[in-house]
Amino acid sequence: MLQPRMARLLLLPGYALLALTLIGPLITTLVISLGRRAPSGGYETALSIENFASVLSRSTAFLNTVQLSAFGAAICILAAIPVAFFIAKHLKGSVRYTVLFLVVLPFFTSFVARTYAWYFALGGRGLPAVLEWIGLGRFRFLNTDFAVAIGIIYAYLPIAILMLFVAFDRIGDDLLEASNDLGRGKVETFFSVVIPLAMPGLISTYSLLFILLSGEYLIPMLLGGGKVYFIGNAIVDLFLQSRNWPLGSAVAISLMSMMIVVAFLSQIFQRMANRDGRIG
Amino acid sequence: MDRKELSVWVEKYRRGHISRRGFLTVTGIGATMLGMGIRPSRALSQELSGTVTLATWPSYQNQANLDSFTEKTGVSVNMAIFGSNEEMMAKMQAGESGFDIIAPSQYAIPLYASGQFIEPLDLSLLPNYDAAAVEPRFVEQGTFDGKTYAVQKNWGTSGFIINTTMVTTPFTSVKDYFDGIRGPYSGYGVALDHPLDTVGFALKYHGYSFNSVDEAELKKAEELLLETKPHLYAVTTDFQPMMSSGDASIAMGWSFNAMQLHRDMPEIQYVIAKEGGEIWCDFYVITRNGPNRAAAYALVNHLLDPANNVLEFEAHGSAISDTRVLALLPPEVQTDPILYPAKELLDPLEFGIAEAMSNPLRNEIMARFKSA
Amino acid sequence: MRLAPEAEGGGANAPDDRTKGQRMNDGGGTFRGVTKKFGSFTAVNDLSFEIEAGSFVSIVGPSGCGKTTTLRLIAGFEFPTVGSVFIGGSPVERMEAYERPINMVFQSYALFPHLDVFDNIAYGLRSRRNRRPAAEVKARVNEIIGKMQLSGKEHNRVWELSGGQQQRVALARAIVNNPKILILDEPMAALDKKLRRDVQFELQSLQRELGITFIMVTHDQHEALSLSDRIIVMNRGRIEQIGSPDELYNRPASRFVASFIGDFNLLELEKPAAGGTVDVAGRVLAVPQERAGEGATIAVGFRPDALKLSAAAPGAGGEAWRATITNVIYLGDKVEIKLDCPSSGTLLARADVARLAERRFRVGDTVHLTVEDSDFHHFTK
């Protein structure tokens, strides 16, 4: 048995690594956010919260991000529910794991390549050309909320399916059969048993998706063409284009704070849902 | 992403599918190192060895020249690919010290020079450079504080690229661009995701200098940009696919974009606005703290060899002003209206300047324009 | 098929004197030639039987015998590959579980963890299909809560209840719907031994009071014997025997049933019987009349109670009917003695302690074995 003192000592390298890789950058970001942009770009030491006041100038991007993340996460969940439920409750044995593997298969190719595929598919020579050829008229999809939503749903659907699969898989078949036995068909059972019992999973999936999506910048950049602009794009531009590191840091910290609030709310809601069932 | 995948993207870029900016995103923020050099069969030079790293733009160098350099000197060449001057500078400001040579545009040179990132060139080590063969206005852009910091690589202009089957009204000016997009071509216009050009053209619309940093003037430019934003199809440098597919009909862009589009689709034409716009020039500079200074000079000298420079021209397709190189190129190249526009069109153009590039308000206007 | 319902004669039995509910007449169940395959595995093979309305029927058998599949076929969680299922005379084999007038008490109880006791019990009455007015739901649920001694627990979370209470909620949740048939899947499995006895009595009283058909699946033959009117013994997807506890115990139709229901000393014959007699370790037994038409006897056996031990000198059976005592186990008023017999292997004897009082058997003693001819069971399968 290790002495507590010894054990604490052995944990030190772990904590040091944590401090170095997580807390260090966080503090650096915080310090930079209080500084000033150097005349030719970059960072200059200063102590001011002015940058946080300027964050308001990105409110459109924030609003965009929140709206599309909330919407995208909701669509992902709605699309993932039937798939995840089917895999969890209707597939057995090896078929089930084969299908799960197929769900995560896109992860084995580069995220960028997959998003670029949509860039070409939604561009004028892709899907719109097909629709025009069929005679449905001329469409333009790229650089719209729609295109970004498609990209988001495509990219994050597998995560939603996996998470919801776990949530649904935990619900015993006997509960579904009991509901069936008590006169409720599949749909009624789904809404009166599955959804309430999966609620903690639905909440955590939704909030994780929301957090992931609100940090997204590649999809809006490629499929939004500067027309659909996320806060992530604002951060990238502030660092790499305007080279205004302090404001970039301030915006990043604001985004992070928003995510923390979402994660915190998610915890509260999950606990409420848990109290209502789930834990035996 | 590994090298193989990267080379696929490089190839895509080469075919004009991806812009500099798009390329940057694909390859990850910051520089991506490419060990493109072939292994030397034998080392001919005793003094030179190791590796030299060139930070440049996608599809901007001829691999054959790099290979022949390696063959000749035994020094292998790495390339670091960047999406924009702003990103390259962000990397240098963040303390990057692995590059020997970088290829900035004229407006970045004073910032690098004053920031002690690059050194005045020792021209004795660059016998292939002949200042007299290069147009003086470009030579001037490579000079800072009376010293030569940069040697010219190639040059071009910023203007407007239009699809003449879609844009049927006369199009000759910056006014036509902003008014057309807010009018008949609403939803079909593209602005560059590049602060210098986009803010610069908005200033030109009101008759101000392309490089203005005057607050009142910039305020008017910002108003114009914010008014135009809802009518735009995209704010991007990755507009070539949109133009060729017909999703967009008017784009603010650079001459080499126009060259590539026009070559495939003759109905796509390049307009240098009569009010003016930007003329730009890319250079080679040598970093102060690069790891292989001797090889850096040798490589720049190798690339400036007129015969090699012809190969470079074939790779990047931008105009070269070195008369020794022009003499080796077919005559029709020198009369190409996109590559070498008429003097009266070039006269009103301004070089983008460092002050404009680093001006916080101009950058903030661009950022607000994008996030609007 | 030999085990077709008409061969069982169960339907002809006169109803006993219990109080029967009104719906008992339509609460019977019939399986006709039901086979259920899962892929290449046949879980249930050509099953035919009839369950009398208002009776308490148990389905027993070792694990994997198909009893759970049979139960699920009745409940509607599985559909027959071949064959028909009738409930109250109507075919139901294509009806979903929620359409069948059947409710089930799950082995796990399957109580809804997100609902309290009241809402669990009210679940069926609030389904879209069988929705009752709120006032009626309240009255019926409260009535059943009283009956099941769950008063005061209405708004408890189900996981806060004890195992016995949970089982009563599961029972209440099922019977509140007035099903024609109540299915119980291993209802005692999750209860501790002491509680089981009480619950068995409660179940029996409940069934008599409600008068609805109870079908219980259990692997515990004691439970089946003590509760059921009739027992269906299954093995390897087929029915071995259907009968009353008494019939199964005293007239097992096969070696399997004999060994499965109660303890049994089975003696396999080296050669099948011929000419109306069998030779059991030197003892010649006449094949009883009722077995005569069924084919050759291949094994015989007797219950442990039929085996008498004595220290007396060998009788007619000779040396073959001597054995050595290996274990003596006192079970309160009974004693069980395990014997090692050179000719028949391990045997079990059971007797009243009082009856053995005059003779104390010890481990290692050699004893003489006596079994009456009439106590031998003859098996053709």
Automatic annotation (TrEMBL), chain A:
<keyword id="KW-1003">Cell membrane</keyword>
<feature type="transmembrane region" description="Helical">
    <location>
        <begin position="247"/>
        <end position="269"/>
    </location>
</feature>
<keyword id="KW-0812">Transmembrane</keyword>
<feature type="transmembrane region" description="Helical">
    <location>
        <begin position="66"/>
        <end position="87"/>
    </location>
</feature>
<feature type="transmembrane region" description="Helical">
    <location>
        <begin position="146"/>
        <end position="168"/>
    </location>
</feature>
<comment type="similarity">
    <text>Belongs to the binding-protein-dependent transport system permease family. CysTW subfamily.</text>
</comment>
<dbReference type="Pfam" id="PF00528">
    <property type="entry name" value="BPD_transp_1"/>
</dbReference>
<dbReference type="InterPro" id="IPR035906">
    <property type="entry name" value="MetI-like_sf"/>
</dbReference>
<feature type="transmembrane region" description="Helical">
    <location>
        <begin position="189"/>
        <end position="213"/>
    </location>
</feature>
<keyword id="KW-0813">Transport</keyword>
<keyword id="KW-1133">Transmembrane helix</keyword>
<dbReference type="InterPro" id="IPR000515">
    <property type="entry name" value="MetI-like"/>
</dbReference>
<keyword id="KW-0472">Membrane</keyword>
<feature type="transmembrane region" description="Helical">
    <location>
        <begin position="12"/>
        <end position="34"/>
    </location>
</feature>
<feature type="transmembrane region" description="Helical">
    <location>
        <begin position="99"/>
        <end position="121"/>
    </location>
</feature>
<protein>
    <submittedName>
        <fullName>ABC transporter permease</fullName>
    </submittedName>
</protein>
<feature type="domain" description="ABC transmembrane type-1">
    <location>
        <begin position="62"/>
        <end position="266"/>
    </location>
</feature>
TrEMBL record, chain B:
<dbReference type="InterPro" id="IPR006311">
    <property type="entry name" value="TAT_signal"/>
</dbReference>
<keyword id="KW-0472">Membrane</keyword>
<protein>
    <submittedName>
        <fullName>PotD/PotF family extracellular solute-binding protein</fullName>
    </submittedName>
</protein>
<keyword id="KW-1133">Transmembrane helix</keyword>
<keyword id="KW-0732">Signal</keyword>
<dbReference type="Pfam" id="PF13416">
    <property type="entry name" value="SBP_bac_8"/>
</dbReference>
<dbReference type="InterPro" id="IPR006059">
    <property type="entry name" value="SBP"/>
</dbReference>
<dbReference type="InterPro" id="IPR001188">
    <property type="entry name" value="Sperm_putr-bd"/>
</dbReference>
<keyword id="KW-0574">Periplasm</keyword>
<keyword id="KW-0812">Transmembrane</keyword>
<dbReference type="InterPro" id="IPR019546">
    <property type="entry name" value="TAT_signal_bac_arc"/>
</dbReference>
<feature type="transmembrane region" description="Helical">
    <location>
        <begin position="21"/>
        <end position="38"/>
    </location>
</feature>
<keyword id="KW-0813">Transport</keyword>
